Amino acid sequence: MGKRNILIALISLSVILLIGTSYALLRSVQVGENPYVIELGNLEVKFASNQTENLVIKNALPMSLEDAMKEEDTLSFVVSNTGSIEARYNLYIKETNGNSILKNVLRFAVKKNEADFGEAKILADNKYIDYKALIGSGESINYRLKMWVDEKADATYMNQTFSGKVEIESIQSEGYDDRDDVLNSENVKIIDRLKAKAYNEKEMIAINKDGNKCESLENCDVREYRFSGKDVNNYIYLKDNKSSNELWRIIGIFTDDDTNEEYLKIVRAESLPLNYLSDNYKVNGNTYSLKNSENNLVYWNKLTGTNTDINDFSESGLKYFLNNANDDDNTAGYLNYLAIATKSSLKEDVKYSLGSVNYNENTTKEAFTNEHDINGCIDNVGGSTLTATCQIWNKNKASFKGTVSLMSPSDYGYAADSSYWDTKTLSDYALEEVKNSNWMADINNIWLLNAATTNQNEVVSLNEEGNLSNANVYDNTLGVRPVLSLKYLTNLIDGDGTRENPYIIFE
Questions:
Q1: How far is Cα 471 from Cα 451, in angstroms, rounded to an integer?
Q2: 145-155 pLDDT tens trace
Q3: Is 4 a domain residue?
Q4: Which of 106, 131, 416, 476 is the right S-S partner for 123, CB 3.0 to 4.6 Å?
Q5: Is 340 in the same domain as 448?
Q6: Residues 55 and 48: beta-carbon distance below 8 Å
Q7: How many CB atoms lie within 10 A of CB 387?
Q8: What is the mean pLDDT of residues 339-365?
């Protein structure tokens, strides 16, 4: 038969459909002489009465397509349109246990209503069960999902686990390709407005799991959405504690690894003004030198009374100033300079990866991998060299969770045209041709988030010429442009993202 003799031990493939969350809201926006009329309804996934909510395959054997089609185990469910309007929808498998390598050898096939099972797909290449499917008002569509381990799987995939869930996304039956309803209507979430730009390839680009531009969103497993290119309309207003507008810029839309919640990552359009900064900052009994009174710039991590400190942002004086109250004055610290309305829209405990980057050797894609490929990294181990298994300096943390952070080197890299992401090292971003394609090219003289690979006292930065460089955390001083994350539920009030008319998210 088609089964191999290699047993992939303890593979547990689980496609989990959660009844309470497998819903998508339908909205029809009608435009005429009268104000908008909005009709609402639901798309929902229902399971067949004789089915459990899980499809679990344990101790799986690789098998051929022919043998897989003979297997009886399938997951049956129904998509129902309970609204009064017809709609289009995407139905797809979303991974829930990290980036499992099993996706490369997991195949699935789908049977829709009375049709035969369709062409088998590799999950890593195509996550969609159904794409742009049309469903009428009151209609129900039946699905059967069959999944197995492909016969090409070898011992590399032993003891691996994949788990995921089926999600449904509603899209409008009319105007989907332009998403005119989202681009032009009022009272939408800012993330939805920006994703509409991505679907139209208007300034915002969808990026897949491999770090490449999605050439088509139809078969793309999207990792994030970013503004890329020189002329982008990504300006947004936040309010400080005096209710004055601060100008920020949107980096992109990202997804929380732990909660799968989307959030908006933004960076201040200018460095922090001097009145935000104090000379010293005291946290947990330690006093950090913060501002250099001679040039009014900022140390990254200078513990008072020492001539050395490490490039671990999670333990740095700058991180404490941005996220924590001062021991001697709980009204100090960066977060206290933001308005209450602004703080209520911020996503807290965002995970930031702290892998080290070599800007002379790394392309943008490689920098992102080095920043984030921290699986198996051990925090606070002895020594003072990069570990052999990951890009984390010994004694440093692999990541930290906080509200405020800094830009990463890959944030700078992905802001350039996608043609440079894997063809130029980050040091080549000093070239005029690359700068002319990068909306961040005018940012200079600031600290970045990630450690350098040169030694444990240096981090990557942008120098006075706006080129990537390394800087000493306790000896050099640079400007600070904080990075914040806005919750998915943040509504867009007004604006088109231009500098003259920034997005406004507060009245």
A1: 10
A2: 888 888 888 87
A3: no
A4: 106
A5: yes
A6: no
A7: 16
A8: 89
With beta carbons less than 8 A apart as the criterion, state whether 72 and 14 touch. Answer: no
Q: Is residue 302 part of a domain?
A: yes
Residue linked to tokens 């810029």: 249
Q: Are residues 262 and 357 in the same domain?
A: no
Alpha helices (H) in 203-271, listed in sequence order: none
CA distance 359 to 367: 8
DSSP-derived letter for residue 481 is: -
The CA-based dihedral angle spanning residues 50, 53, 59, 60, taken in that order and rounded to the nearest 10 degrees: 80
Domain match, 119 and 212 both: no
Cβ partners under 8 Å of residue 154, min gap 6: 6
Helix boundaries (H) for 291-407: 317-323, 340-344, 364-372
Question: In three state form, how does the secondary structure of 10-37 look?
Answer: CCEEEEECCCCCCEEEEEEEECCCCCCE
Q: Is 419 exposed, middle or buried (0-12, 13-18, 19+ CB in 10 A)?
A: exposed
> pLDDT-based confidence at 370, cuts 50/70/90?
confident
**pTM score, whole prediction:** 0.67
Judgement on whether residues 218 and 285 belong to the same structural domain of the protein: no
In a domain, 434, yes or no: yes
Whole-number CA gyration radius for the chain: 25
**Which tokens sit at 235?**
């300006």
* Matching residue, tokens 């990075």: 483
> Which residues on neighbouring strands pair with residue 165, listed in sequence order?
16, 94
382 and 236, same domain (yes or no)? no
**Beta carbons of 445 and 464 less than 8 angstroms apart:** yes
Cβ–Cβ under 8 Å, residues 159 and 10: yes
**40, 73: one domain:** yes
User: How many Cα atoms sit within 13 Å of 316 on the Cβ side?
Assistant: 34
Least confident of 104-118, 154-168, 300-314, 321-335: 154-168
- Indicate if 147 and 86 belong to the same structural domain: yes
Q: What is the pLDDT of residue 304?
A: 82
Q: Which domain holds residue 440?
A: 274-480
Number of domains the chain contains: 3
Instruction: Return the top range by mean pLDDT from 181-185, 226-230, 338-342.
Output: 226-230
What are the backbone angles phi and psi of residue 56, rounded to the nearest 5°?
Answer: -120, 125
Structure tokens at 291: 């501002």
407 burial via Cβ count (<10 Å: 0-12, 13-18, 19+): buried
Distance CA 371, CA 363 (A): 12
The predicted pLDDT at position 37 comes to 32
Residue 78 located in a structural domain:
yes
